[in-house]
Amino acid sequence: MEFVFKKLTSISATFILIILSAIFIVLFIYSKPAIKEYGLKFLIDPRWGVTIKIPKSNPSNLSISDKKTAVSGNLSQEKLGTKSDNEDDNSLLNDDSDNDNNLLNDDSDNSNNDSSLNNDSDNDDNLLNSDSDDDSDLMGNDNEANSNYVTKEIYGGLIPIVGTILSTIIALLFAVPIAMGIAIFLSEIAPPFLSKPVGIAIELLAAIPSIIYGMWGLFYFGPFVSKIVGGPSVNLLVAGLVLGVMIIPFMASLTRDSMNTTPNVLKESAYALGATKFEVIKDVIFPYAKSGIIGSIILALGRALGETMAVAFVIGGVFKLPKHLTDPTVSIPVVLANNFAESSGMSMAALFYLALVLFVISFIVIVTAKFYFLRNKK
């Protein structure tokens, strides 16, 4: 039985590693065209879906699809050239026939004394022909100029990356002090008859769907913040504050549970030595529960990085780098949610590239925090 139990636990751990690896592999495979096309410049390019013209004479800037377009354009240009040669031959034949007709007309005009009328009509025809030739030359020049370029769509992830990082930082700066205060109050200060209902209320807040937070932020909290700090009611600051409100109950519950694991003998010994409530919390409870507190912050950070619906309501959805906290912008989850259904080809690969960037950011944050915690623990 013990052998079976060990096998089940090892299979469970392996299953988690397989899922993590599979997610990374899928994101990398589908984002590979965008990685080849844009490379690391994708991370610092603020453009998204911008169409530019590239000269055909510069093949180093063309992708494979653009090169195919250029080749097909050259073939069509050659066909147009052969067609124009045939038209030139036909025009020469028409000119010869026109000259013969003019000789006959001159003879008939001399005999009938109507040469003046025919000359006027010939002059009018020549003017019309010259005008049409000029128009065709202008159109030919425009077509020739356009045929020397191919179009290319540029995608960059700088704006959603910046929006994601800034909104998460605002959320943590707002949520961490409040969550720590709630956890300290519930675990050490509040009487039992008050701590239990308040704890239940905190857990209920953590269970509220994110779309409800988004609607609340859009119709009430955003206009309220706008009246205080100015700017539109949907912007980066409102998105960060709504994220902070969302992760406060989550972080407070985990932090309170970590503080409650502190042995009573340690706290009573500190009180016996004359320590105050503040000193016990600072010197006994926090050091003992540090791992749980850091874990709660990391988990809250992960939720803030990947939050979609609430942020989509209040961040603004504008592809623009925010110069102020009250400017509207976008985040990575919002871009993925708003553009996935309408994307294909390179735009779809760019979205998978953004998803891969978000995955790597979350992984780096968690690994860095864990490494820092383990180093201090030693």
Structure explained in plain terms:
The chain has 378 residues and is mostly helical. The chain has 2 domains: 1-54, no CATH class; 160-375, MetI-like fold (Orthogonal Bundle), CATH 1.10.3720.10. The chain has helices at 2-38, 64-112, 115-147, 158-189, 192-206, 210-229, 236-259, 264-272, 277-288, 290-306, 309-314, 332-339, 346-377; strands at 48-55, 149-155. The longest helix is centred in the first third of the chain and has 49 residues, at 64-112. Mean pLDDT is 77; it is low at 64-128. Part of the binding-protein-dependent transport system for phosphate; probably responsible for the translocation of the substrate across the membrane. Its main location: membrane. It is found in: Cell membrane. Residues 86-99, 121-137 have a biased composition (Acidic residues).
Overview in brief:
It is found in: Cell membrane. This protein is mostly helical and 378 residues long.
Keyword list:
transport; cell membrane; globular; two-stranded antiparallel sheet; mainly alpha; MetI-like fold; 378 residues; 2 domains; 2 strands
